[in-house]
Design a protein that fits this description.
Length: 120
């Protein structure tokens, strides 16, 4: 079985409201040897206002978030989906690269294994 470790940079911590701006993942074999790597970014959606703390934490200047040469959020999510489907089946674990502060959500594994995602 292979494993996927991933991290995201977002515009804030509110699920369902904030946007993923940057997604990075590493796929390993059962011995944790890296076998694949994937990274993608998207431009800020016009209706999303990044939280100042998120900008400070991820270090992304607002100018880089509005770069029209970056793919749309929709395109980025499609690329993530295709990659993760091609890597299945595997186990998932989100990485917490920033130190937790009071009030931050703890890292959680994806609620379903990647093998539960279908291409239909």
């Amino acid at each position: 079985m292979s494993f996927v470790f991933f991290d995201t940079e977002t515009t804030g911590l509110k699920r369902g409201f904030d946007q993923i701006l940057h997604f990075a993942a590493v796929r390993t074999d059962e011995n944790l040897n890296e076998v694949a790597r994937f990274e993608t970014r998207s431009r800020l959606q016009p209706h999303v206002l990044p939280h100042p703390s998120a900008l400070r934490t991820n270090g992304l200047p607002i100018e880089s978030l509005t770069d029209s040469s970056l793919p749309s959020h929709y395109t980025m999510v499609g690329d993530i989906r295709r990659t993760l489907i091609s890597w299945s089946p595997c186990g998932f674990r989100r990485l917490q690269l920033h130190p937790l502060r009071r009030g931050d959500a703890a890292p959680r594994p994806l609620p379903v294994p990647i093998s539960g995602i279908s291409d239909k």
